[in-house]
């Protein structure tokens, strides 16, 4: 992967090298191994805490340069807050908080994976390690003149001091693949649209073959033959041909019904003939965040050899205004046979998904389909950037997504569907139209998708607010967040791999 942080594990007894990171609670207590490591410098910490009004609040840090009595060049104390209130997800944040202090240049780092009440469990230490890598990631490929400090990526060699090295390594191995998947998704979202056009996107997805993923790429001819008129209508205005990519990981029992993930991959969305305003249009390079998540997720699942059959499917196109672009008023025929009146060519994501969802539902008959799409601005009006909007025809799937959302911190909020909304997209001239009125825009978008899933259990995640340009967090400072990879990986691990 493109981040430059190497993580390893050592026993507590190893002498710390370089920067030393330790954790305390909200009473400034340390664990036994940490106290031993700090020796006489515990006093320095106490005084520094007083001067800096450091109270050990969760995620807060105290930074001491060249601490007296320690070989370490720097001591970073990270607050873990009230011990009884710590949740699993907080360990990621603790790693992120530590990495946040390292920004810029090379570093050798030792992190004492211990809380005041004892050594962190292997899972917790592994989560800290994941948090370090997630927070340290930076997309700087195109900066040829790096300023000192702020612009330099972290190049760190991080050792986590733990109680049981073998157990920590074992816990981290699958998580490292999940982090790789998140970073892969971030990379795809961050890449500029002249670099990441549909054919190139498909080529990158095809690299999953190295992990044993079966990758099939449908070109324009193949999609025409299948009758994917909705997707092709969007893509016809661009000189860049569209693609549908089908990725299959068969880690489960032979013949077992797969689970399926579908992503919107509009590599650039101008709006088409219903062209967008120019302010902020550059952000529309991220309109493929759903597809990026599906590729990152497939990476994570295949690399950790998930015991499940999975289909990942993405429709990758560019939405451009052109002499050959589709017009408002056009009527296209989708693969399902349903005709669609184009009201607004900027409501293109649902047209792409209509054909890919139908294809996946019919061809693979999955246990469920979850689609992800940067679909509507309206979802940001409703939920801001903290939650993705979730729409579902299946309560069990919706409840599971809600639960893993809380566990991973990639939260979803369920929104309504219903016949009152559905009738708003009945068309005067065709079976359905691709846009309703302004009010409830995220809901009518979801109603449109539902007409193309048949009775497959399905959930749609509108990630327009969470996939890109979301506020920086403890574990993400990248514009492309990689949202959804950890969420859906957890969904698979908890409910579809037969572990629990
Ligand atoms: Mn659009
Ligand atoms: Zn779009």
In short:
With 500 residues, the chain is an alpha/beta fold. The chain has helices at 32-38, 42-51, 88-100, 122-136, 165-190, 198-206, 220-226, 229-235, 289-303, 349-364, 378-383, 395-408, 419-422, 441-450, 485-495, and strands at residues 5-11, 19-24, 61-65, 74-79, 105-112, 114-115, 118-119, 154-162, 214-218, 243-250, 259-269, 309-319, 331-333, 339-341, 369-373, 388-392, 412-414, 432-433, 458-462. A hairpin with a 5-residue loop joins strand 13 and strand 14 (339-341).
The major β-sheet equals:
8 strands, mixed
The N- to C-terminal Cα distance equals 31 Å
Radius of gyration: 24 Å
Please give the order of strands in the largest beta sheet.
Answer: 9-10-12-11-15-19-16-17
Chain-averaged pLDDT: 95
How much β-strand is present in the residues?
A: 15-25%
The helicity comes to 25-40%
Note poorly predicted spans.
Answer: none
Ligand species: manganese (II) ion, zinc ion
Q: Given the C-alpha coordinates, what overall shape results?
A: elongated
- Total helical segments: 15
